[in-house]
Amino acid sequence: MPKTAWVAGALMIAGMVAAGLWFHPDAMRQRRTDRPPKPAPPAPITYFQLEPEARVFAQYAGSASCRDCHKEAYALWKTSNHGLAERLPDPARDREAFVPSRTFKHGTQSTEARERDGRFEIVADGLSNRAPLTVERVIGNDPLIQFLVPFPGGRWQTHEASFDPRKKEWFNVYGDEDRQPGEWGHWTGRGMNWNTMCAACHNTRLRKNYDEASDTYRTTMAEMSVGCEACHGPMKDHTDWQNAHKNQNKKDPTLKPLNRGQWLDTCAFCHSRRMDLTGDFKPGDRYLDHHSLIVVDETDIYHPDGQVRDENYEYTAFLGSKMSASGVLCMDCHNPHSMKTLLPGNLLCQRCHEGGHTNAPIIDPVKHSFHKVFNPFVDAAGQPVEVDLSATDFKNVKETGGQCVNCHMPQTVYMQRHWRHDHGFTVPDPLLTKQFGIPNACNRCHQKPEETVDWAIAYVDKWYGEKMNRPSRERTRWLARARQGEAAARDPLLRLMTAETNAYWRAVSANLLESWAHEPAVTAALLRQLADTNALVRGHVVQSLGRLAEQPSPAVEQALRAALADPVQSVRYHAAIALRAVLDPQSPVGRELLHTLDVNADQPVGQMQKGVYYLARKEPQRALAHFQKAAQWDAYSPGVRHELAIVHSLLGQTEEALKQMREAVRLAPREAEYHYKLALALNETGDVAGTVAALEEAVKLDPRHARAWYNLGLGRNAQGHTFPALEALARAETLEPSDPRIPYARATILAREKRYEEARVAAKKALGLNPHYREAQALLQALAAPPGP
């Protein structure tokens, strides 16, 4: 097996409400005629520049300035989860957690919470001397409270020991995990660092202010907690004008009301899983000018139908929903100040689904759900009664099976105590559970031994029949198959990318097409889709085309360069990443990219991104320093070890590369790709037997790993095992029929075995896939000559 430049394709690092119609709780019917906003015309490019902090904070007046004029809204906000998102310790609120002192065990560790001399303290494992740490800030309110303790370098760490104010008990947010000091996700590690992981969404207009050279923070904010201006934007001009014109009934020229799209972007800032591009979002800004949104992709962050799996908050799932596509926004259902729903239970959904909304189908909850439905407007005999909704107890309702949210917004628990509704408004489909392991709401509730997936399928088929064969089921099937690497998913993805009416799913399709981006038909389709009016779609198209950036065709290079001038920064970011090897760092988009790299440089993934940047720019030693720092900060991450091994290999440091790959395999022994890369590293040392053994483990773990089968064929051939070599190459060819190297490899082995006719067929197949394949041309010419004696 020839020595392999095994870097190609490996350094793919994961980058990581509404104005208008607000419903009063008494409004049982409201006719809405609004539609999703039409795409705005292309805006002029505004390249991001960070404003001076003093100038920014001077524009904020603080929430207290709103109280006198907005008494009702202020009162609702003050005690809400937003109003109490972050605060100083309060004896009236927090003493119950620390008095009396108590100790609880979790895994091999224990934590004590106590009060000493008027201070709240936590004593826990993680520091060498187990010294008590003083709680100096509190984040969260309901259903859990977490505590911040100061660390050197301007850091604040979020402790794993958390308090449940409902049950009045301490618990560990990691559950049964026994995270140890030194792990990225331990409470002393960067995964629980408040400055970068929590602060921006628990405060108002925060500046992280990280200094990479000293690895320190100088974090500041306009106001602690999620204040009024966190959603309404800076309001000092407004309060000053109002104070100067009291009782004059004049129109305030300082007010610039946000439109519905801007309100949604404001909520999305905190209620989404994303990569931060600027570190300085404010209400009124475009979300995609400040963030790169994480969508359904090859990872397990989301399920293929859009349901949340990992901790993803609400926005992304909502974007993929029919509600979002119909123009519904957050505050059509939530009070904008308390954030509670405007009406309880099915009353909220029925406000639109009983004919009060021009786009919403009329739904009878009883007939639709086939479950008992709680109805406060009738008595036990079914007779109508007058109801005071504010005095009705909805918390102890027994008939939960007929509640709309329990089927279409199933809950998942995060941080052990926080049950969150999925905002994808998906349809429960146990058939997709059986086929792809996607959870369904039926079996989330029905968990008796006899209530199997097949049992749920039988009821769903009986009740809904052909209605279940809806377009979203078919879409989910192809997305699931694409995530599994099935070639048959390519063409359906191409159709979804162009025909899907919901832009979110067009973006997902473009994202998943990256695996086939090198194929001419896919490349052409992606290039055409760059004309999509939706920036999320364009960004993921650029991301997929970026796979071709090392050796782009003229059309791809031209398209990527054109994307550098896109009016939306997230699109420019993906183009800049693709062209990082040749991008002028002093150009406006070059400076934007460097700013983004700096914003994220306090985390291991940010250091890896910097390493990739300098590696592409032919500065491997500089890249190595960033990868080493990432490994130091996240010593237990196999992915970091894998990337570090690649850099060592590029620098010719074979033994160090081998060491890092062995560590990656030790940390993730079930990851086929790491065994494959270990095989390539072993091959660099000439260890053929070790190479073959590692490749055999790779294909055992992932039978669809075409490159591993191909290299296994070459390795077995080097050992003189002809038949097993041909067998492995045949498997590779089945999995990757468009790769001409595989039939060429077969042809060389067959020729050596004097199976000349079979060798000719294989060589011709290689040339059919690549007419310019010189080695195949030479072999075919040699095979055309009569064999010697």
Description of the structure:
The structure is a single chain. The protein has a domain at 53-244. Helices cover 43% and strands 9% of the residues. It is built from 35 helices and 18 strands. Strands 1-6-7-8 form a 4-stranded antiparallel sheet, with no helix packed on it. The chain has a 4-stranded antiparallel sheet with strand order 2-3-4-5. β12 (210-211) and β13 (216-217) form a beta hairpin.
- Report the major sheet: 4 strands, antiparallel
Terminal CA distance reads 29 Å
Strand content: 5-15%
Mean pLDDT: 91
Radius of gyration: 29 Å
Spatial order of strands in the largest sheet: 1-6-7-8
SS-based class: alpha+beta
Could you give a short description of this structure?
With 789 residues, the protein is α+β, with helices and mostly antiparallel strands.
